[in-house]
Design goal:
The chain is of the alpha+beta class. It has a nine-stranded antiparallel beta sheet, with helices on both faces. Residues 196-208, 445-457 and 833-839 have low confidence and may be disordered.
Length: 839
């Protein structure tokens, strides 16, 4: 079984690494059965190493992974791959209040490869639950644990209480346990008052889980999906709490005045929602708003801190879609109120055709259902909703899609900063050093390492480290103030707040004022490499093959999406930029480097007339990594503007003349490539969304002929510069393709600018490329130059979106947050009209 295999491999890796740990729960039926959730007590000094090893093994087995700080002493690893979910709770202390029952795991016995501490197991499985007024988990106490309980429990409780506790456990008497539990709690509270030893931080937990809501008209399937979802979520999380519309801290408003419930009434055997607004709408809104705010802090957050997901059937936005149901005269006040209320992490619309909903729930008029659906879809286009799921599949499939979304949202949470930092260092060590004679380490650890062994000469390079919430990391060299300021140019920014921050930081680095305030990283090297010895650090190798002794470099670690793709910028010691370096360190990244090098070689033999490309300075291998060094041109005058300039439009037109061909859409290699991705998308929601969009486009345009040609693959303002001669310099060709649909680069440039620079919503993106939109003119200009009419814009734009979406969706389990906007644009109803060119 995969579950047992991966957990056994983690235990074996910990054993080899000398990690001191003890499994306290989850092995009761091993080896016949192993729990999806293991509780593990760890040595505090080794917790970070254990986390890194476990995370690395999960990711190597294609699991999506999230690491969450659930308490001040506990980190939880959640690993999900398809329907398989595993959870490890790693704690450095087992205690209640200020009493600490176990903090140093004792390797008393082993079960298979797993280390077990009987006292820690009893404390977790039985003692803590008794103190929390819950029955122990079986077995209540074993023969091995009894003598340990009799001796160790006396450290915290009096002898008489311990004897009563053991007697109640052996007789399995719940009533005696309840009584002795109260006595034990009183003793611990008295000890805490007399001898306060621990900070209150262990009593509080950080918010770690996700608050979700299912919305849509009555009859869309919310209740059925919620019921199925509770069963699906229970295999890894501590239950799932379901609430209807609002938290319910305050009673129903009408009950305060002795009035019956007016939100529904019976007529002819049907329960009909209220269809007329009431008076005093402002008072109703204030009352409901108070309940949402108070309930969020008093009910929702306590549940979330216990890693118990909270799911709402409807939410505050329901007052916008159906104001009459809540006695409101219109939706204006509700729209204003919802801007200030606590928002769920996920709001998922369950969508179905109005006629089918009416067949299942005839209580609402058909026109009311249609109006509600239009309102919900409008809010989806404005990204007030997170996703749209069509409920024409069996209810179990709908629940699986919702579970996948909730899991993705959870896995996309940022890991704890200390672990993220060590994770980044590990990745860079595996890519840029040989991990034995050179290593990236934090400044303090690097200084200790530089002390070294007696007679062992060591050298180092120091970098200032910039870290961002999305996982990116930038390292600027500290060889000189000029080098530091020049290295910062590797950080490309487009929005004005980031530009201002970069300008100020650059000035501080240039003057030497910012360096003391930045985190430092040292690349520690043990000795100097001999002339016949392969370099241990990539910079040393590049200095040797390029024949330069005055090299330093800045590093962009890239996003932690799949395999990182670091980009290096080579500088001389005066801060002058010399080259960019692409590095391929695994099969996927080596293929990207090879593809980019092939394109650059082609353009070196047949130079383009309307744009320029970098020149390859060096192409070769270092320790199995593929290196492509591209010379940098200094004679540039900045990036192109957000609106596609004429110079870039001319470049795309020239690309459209290279490798040009025509295919029936459904017979094209491009279409075949997209279809082949569907089976590799593990997330049910993403797979279903991609398949629906593909079927819809195939039905409307599968037999149409479209032109295909060479594409750049990532044409954006930050991947191009304007030279002094006015021609664009295009770089970053790693995603180029010989046969892509006409206009792919145009659509990509526009989408990236609208989404990443201007932060536009799906509805705004659609309007921008529709008739009269601000981005329509360059699209029509390009299509006209290729002999295509306006009726081709809709299907070609949709084809671009399907290609981008399917490529993103193949990523790990946490891939949905990166393509949520694409999913909304591709939803069945929201994109209606574009597929047929009806702009």
């Amino acid at each position: 079984m995969d579950q047992a295999r991966i957990l056994e491999s983690i235990a074996e890796a910990w054993n080899r690494a000398g990690i001191r740990y003890a499994v306290t729960d989850g092995l009761e039926a091993y080896p016949a059965l192993i729990g999806r959730r293991l509780h593990i007590l760890l040595d505090d000094a080794q917790r970070l190493s254990a986390l890194r090893l476990a995370e690395r093994l999960f990711r190597s087995d294609d699991f999506g992974v999230a690491v969450i700080s659930t308490t001040s002493v506990t980190r939880s690893i959640f690993a999900v791959r398809g329907e398989l979910a595993v959870r490890l709770d790693l704690t450095t202390s087992l205690g209640w209040g200020s009493a600490e029952f176990a903090h140093d795991p004792a390797d008393a016995s082993r079960i298979g490869p797993f280390h077990v501490d009987p006292w820690a197991s009893f404390a977790h499985r039985a003692l803590l639950r008794i103190l929390n007024a819950a029955p122990p988990l079986p077995p209540w106490v074993t023969e091995t644990e009894r003598p340990l309980v009799a001796s160790k429990a006396r450290t915290f409780f009096d002898a008489e209480s311990v004897e009563i506790l053991l007697s109640a456990l052996e007789s399995m008497d719940p009533e005696r346990l309840r009584r002795i539990g109260g006595r034990l709690r009183r003793q611990l509270i008295l000890q805490a008052l007399l001898r306060p030893r621990r900070s209150l931080s262990r009593l509080f937990r950080r918010l770690a889980w996700t608050l979700g809501s299912l919305v849509g008209p009555d009859g869309a399937g919310k209740s059925t999906a919620s019921r199925d979802l509770r069963l699906l979520m229970s295999d890894i999380f501590d239950g799932c709490e379901l609430r209807i519309w609002r938290p319910g801290i305050l009673p129903r408003l009408g009950s305060l005045f002795g009035r019956p419930d007016m939100t529904v009434h019976r007529e002819g055997g049907l329960i009909l929602p209220r269809r007329k607004g009431g008076r005093l709408g402002c008072i109703r809104l204030a009352y409901y708003g108070l309940d949402f705010v108070c309930g969020h802090f008093l009910k929702d957050l306590p549940s979330l801190r216990k890693l118990r997901p909270v799911l709402y059937d409807r939410c505050a936005l329901d007052m916008v879609a159906d104001p009459a149901r809540y006695g409101l005269p219109s939706d204006k006040g509700a729209r204003w109120l919802c801007r200030f209320l606590p928002k769920p992490d996920l709001i998922i619309l369950l969508h179905e055709e109005a006629g089918r909903i009416h067949d299942r729930k005839p209580e609402l008029p058909l026109e009311d259902i249609g109006r509600q659906l239009r309102t919900w879809l409008e809010m989806a286009g404005d990204e007030k909703l997170s996703a749209v799921i069509t409920t024409d599949a069996p209810s179990g499939e709908t629940a699986k899609q919702i579970r996948a979304l909730i899991t993705c949202k959870f896995l996309s949470r940022r890991m704890p900063p200390d672990l993220a930092r060590r994770h980044l260092m590990d990745e860079l060590n595996g890519i840029l050093t040989d991990d034995e004679r050179a290593v990236f380490v934090p400044d303090a650890a690097g200084r200790r390492d530089l002390a070294g062994e007696a007679g062992t000469p060591q050298t180092a390079r120091r970098y200032a480290r910039l870290e961002f919430a999305d996982g990116r990391g930038f390292f600027v060299p500290l060889d000189s103030n000029r080098c530091a300021a020049a290295g910062l140019s590797l950080y490309e920014v487009q929005r004005w707040p980031a530009r201002l921050a970069k300008l100020l930081l650059g000035a501080g680095l240039r003057l030497g004022l910012a360096q003391p305030f930045l985190r430092k990283t040292i690349v520690s090297r043990r000795g100097q490499p001999r002339a016949d010895e392969e370099a241990a650090f990539v910079l040393d190798h590049l200095a040797r093959v390029l024949g330069r002794t005055d090299l330093t470099m800045a590093i962009s670690a890239g996003l932690p999406v799949g395999a990182r793709k670091p980009t290096l910028r080579l500088l001389d010691l005066q801060g002058k930029t010399l080259a960019h370096v692409r590095i391929g360190w695994d099969e996927r990244t080596r293929a990207l480097v090879d593809g980019e090098a092939e394109i650059l070689r082609m353009f070196s033999q047949h130079p383009p007339s309307s744009f320029e490309v970098p020149e390859i300075w060096h192409l070769g291998y270092w320790r199995g990594r593929k290196l492509c060094v591209q010379k940098t041109r200094e004679e540039t005058r900045g990036s192109p503007p957000s609106v596609l300039p004429e110079s870039l439009l001319s470049a795309v037109k020239e690309l459209a003349s290279i490798h040009r061909c025509q295919h029936l859409l459904r017979e094209s290699p491009f279409w075949t490539q997209i279809r082949s991705r569907l089976d590799r998308i593990s997330n049910p929601y993403l797979r279903t969304t991609a398949a629906r969009a593909l079927r819809r486009l195939e039905k409307t345009h599968g037999q149409a002929r479209f032109p295909f040609h060479l594409r750049h693959g990532d044409l954006t303002p930050w991947n191009s510069k304007i030279t002094q001669g006015g021609r664009p310099l295009l770089y970053d060709w790693e995603f180029s393709s010989a046969e892509s649909p006409c206009g792919w680069d145009i659509f990509h440039y526009i989408f990236q600018v609208l989404r990443l620079v201007e932060r536009r919503t799906p509805s705004e993106i659609r309007r921008a490329v529709s008739n009269g939109g601000k981005m329509r003119r360059p699209i029509e200009d390009f299509m006209g130059s290729q002999g295509l009419g306006e009726d081709h814009i809709g299907p070609l734009f949709q084809l671009y979106l399907i290609d981008r979406f399917s490529a993103e969706a193949m990523s790990a389990e946490d891939g949905w947050p990166r393509c949520g906007c694409l999913a909304l644009l591709l939803s069945d109803t929201y994109f209606s009209g574009m597929a047929t060119g009806g702009d």
